[in-house]
Write a structure and sequence with these properties.
The structure is a single chain. This protein is α+β, with helices and mostly antiparallel strands. Among the domains are: 206 residues, ATPase, nucleotide binding domain (Nucleotidyltransferase, domain 5), CATH 3.30.420.40; 109 residues, Substrate Binding Domain Of DNAk, Chain A, domain 1 (Sandwich), CATH 2.60.34; 87 residues, Up-down Bundle (Substrate Binding Domain Of Dnak, Chain:A, Domain 2). The strands form eight sheets. Strands 3, 4, 5, 6, 13 and 14 form a six-stranded mixed β-sheet that branches. Helix 6 packs across helix 8, helix 9 runs parallel beside helix 10 and helix 12 crosses helix 13. Bound molecules: adenosine monophosphate.
């Protein structure tokens, strides 16, 4: 694949290869790593202590803070402190409905299908903007450490992330001033950190068991010629080390080591107990007993408490294995990821389930970022002959009747790929057929990007519909696309090879890249404004309809208030202020929700009345 080293601050194309960092953008913690003297290392804080940056963002009076200092604000300023933003990436309100209670900050519910926004004071933020803050902090951390500007990164995402979530992660990178060269799967990165998949000749199946603070994922991958394919994933988005801490607390309360009432009522006592529980858990990863002040717990008790939770993860492994159609014997490696895999009972349970030693030599908190840094190094051209592509990032297809895009290789399809499809002619005696190749996700080719075209000529004269024309797309691991058209009855064929990634010259591509960075914030703001306006217009329409349909049900005051609020929203929608639009929309929604419920109850009771029971 073409790689263009562009210095984003100067806009010039650089000749020397530069550092491409690896970033693990996690739910609870994030970190950045790079290759130092041929070895992947995670970057520590300014005190040279911790590599983990808590994925927490706090909106202070004059500045945004990220990481450990932000984490401290979780208790004092919960409504202005955002955590777990990864859970919201690329999600609509409908998607996150089920776990809203778990969050202490405010998610805006205005349109069930719209992407979620987070409200802090009078402002509205998208998960992309918030993730960008974390990425900016990581960028700053490595720039300070290396004393040079860093622009390029590989960012990891869970294997189950869909395209919207991946795109959101890319956009967050762009907003943070990072050129995201690749989004790779976390299990793929973990595997690379262990050097698995670096040898083009190996053919293996591996398991990545990832238990963090609040989430559990298991992924089964097949690696062939350096290509990683996710065969199956399973997990539990609400299971992690935090649940172990809770088990310990429950036990202490039960055992009267912790006072139930005081724990419920006294915030600082509660916090102290929580910290002790986490400490106990960590100590028990290398000791038989935890004992401090008035609190104690033995390893055997701890194991007994967490056994049911571990069993749940093993069941998930069993399902993943079944879904991958593999047998345990076919698994060549089991890789441990996430801080919670330090718990000995987890290691032994996983090891005994898969009937082999687990890979746990690399720090489980760092392993994903380290692997991402290795991927970055490969992309920087420092590890010759290596190329890793999980999937194709955009759909590839051809133009058919009426300018429609007919997708032949859909986005996210694994590569290499070879897909064929049959077509025919639409005119009697048609001798030539133009094949135009496009890339993109829109339905009309005019909205997508043209990659090239050629003419299949010399089709023997036949009535329309008789020729059998096969179009084949052959995409290799380097992103090179060969499009071949053949008329199967006569055997004539023609093909085109599209080398450049987007059918653009490297310079044009560089310019496009630069432009997308230059306009990232502006584009995002534009999009947010347009989206807010669209949503507002929908809300205005349905509000007017609602007033119309429920004249008899609403009181005079209610009708007047609704009309007033709808007008306010109409005014706001004409403005350029998306926060104002969102605000008015929320006010109207909050006011109309109970009225809508009442109308619904009424409609139901009316319907029942009409029925013979
Ligand atoms: P992560 O989300 O991967 O950063 O995982 C963090 C989780 O790992 C938290 O629940 C920590 O309490 C847990 N953890 C960190 N160190 C240890 C340890 N030594 N033993 C057990 N759990 C640990």
């Amino acid at each position: 694949m073409a790689k263009i080293p562009i210095n984003l601050s100067t806009g010039t194309i650089e000749q020397n290869s530069e550092i491409i960092v690896g970033i693990d953008l996690g739910t609870t913690n994030s970190l950045v790593a790079y290759i130092k003297d041929g070895k992947a290392v995670a970057v520590k804080d300014e005190n040279g202590k911790r590599t983990l940056v808590p994925s927490v963002i706090h909106f202070g009076p004059d500045e945004v803070i990220v990481g450990d200092p932000a984490r401290k604000k979780l208790i004092t300023h919960p409504e202005k402190t955002i955590y777990s933003v990864k859970r919201l990436m690329g999600k609509s309100y409908k998607d996150v409905n089920s776990f809203e209670n778990y969050l202490s900050y405010k998610i805006i519910d205005e349109d069930q299908d719209a992407l979620v926004k987070i409200q802090v004071d009078e402002k509205f933020y998208s998960p992309i903007e918030l993730s960008a803050e974390i990425l900016k902090a990581l960028k700053k951390r490595i720039e300070t450490r290396l004393n040079k500007s860093i622009q390029k990164a590989v960012i990891t995402v869970p294997a189950y992330f869909n395209d919207t979530q991946r795109q959101a992660t890319r956009d967050a990178g762009k907003l943070a001033g990072l050129d995201v060269l690749r989004i790779i799967n976390e299990p793929t990165a973990a595997s690379l950190a262990y050097g698995i998949g670096l040898d083009q000749n190996e053919d293996r199946k591996i398991v990545v068991y990832d238990l963090g603070g609040g989430t559990f994922d298991v992924s089964i991958l097949q690696i062939q010629q350096g290509i990683f394919e996710v065969l199956s994933t399973n997990g539990d988005t609400f299971l992690g080390g935090d649940d172990f801490d809770k088990k310990i607390i429950d036990y202490w309360i039960e055992d009267r080591q912790v006072d139930r009432v005081k724990f419920k009522e006294n915030k600082s006592y509660r916090q102290r107990v929580r910290l002790s529980a986490e400490e106990a858990k960590k100590i028990l990863s290398s000791a038989e007993l935890y004992k401090a002040d008035d609190l104690s717990i033995s390893l055997s008790k701890f194991n007994e408490l967490i056994k049911p939770l571990i069993d749940r993860t093993i069941e998930a492994c069993e399902i993943a294995l079944k879904d991958s159609n593999l047998k345990k014997e076919e698994i060549s490696n089991v890789i441990m990821v996430g801080g919670s895999t330090r718990v000995p009972l987890i290691k032994s349970s996983v090891s005994s389930f898969f009937d082999q030693q687990v890979n746990d030599k690399i720090d489980p908190d760092e392993v994903v970022a380290l692997g991402a840094a290795i991927q970055g190094d490969i992309l920087a051209g420092n590890q010759k002959g290596m190329l890793l592509l999980d999937v194709t990032p955009l759909s590839l297809g051809i133009e058919t009747v009426g300018g429609l895009m007919d997708v032949i290789i859909p986005r996210n399809n694994k590569v290499p790929a070879r897909v064929g499809r049959n077509y025919t002619t639409s005119v009697d005696g048609q001798k030539n057929l133009k094949v135009s190749v496009y890339q993109g996700e829109r339905d009309m080719v005019s909205d997508n990007r043209k990659l090239g075209e050629f003419i299949l000529s010399g089709i023997p004269p036949m009535p329309a519909g008789i020729p059998k024309i096969e179009i084949q797309f052959i995409l290799d691991a380097d992103g090179i696309l060969v499009v071949k058209a053949s008329e199967l009855r006569s055997g004539i064929s023609q093909n085109i090879e599209i080398r450049s990634q987007y059918g653009l010259s490297e310079e044009e591509m560089g310019k496009m890249l630069l432009d997308s960075f230059k306009h990232a914030e502006e584009d995002l703001a534009k999009r947010a404004l347009l989206e807010a306006r669209n949503e507002a217009n929908n809300v205005i329409l349905s509000s007017k309809k609602f007033i119309d349909h429920n004249k008899t049900l609403l009181t005079k005051e209610e009708t007047a208030t609704l009309i007033e609020m709808t007008k306010d929203l109409e005014m706001a929608a004409k403005s350029e202020d998306k926060d104002a639009i969102n605000h008015k929309m929320e006010t109207l929604n909050n006011y109309s929700r109970p009225l809508a419920e009442r109308a619904l109850d009424h409609a139901i009771s009316d319907a029942l009345k009409g029925k013979e029971l």
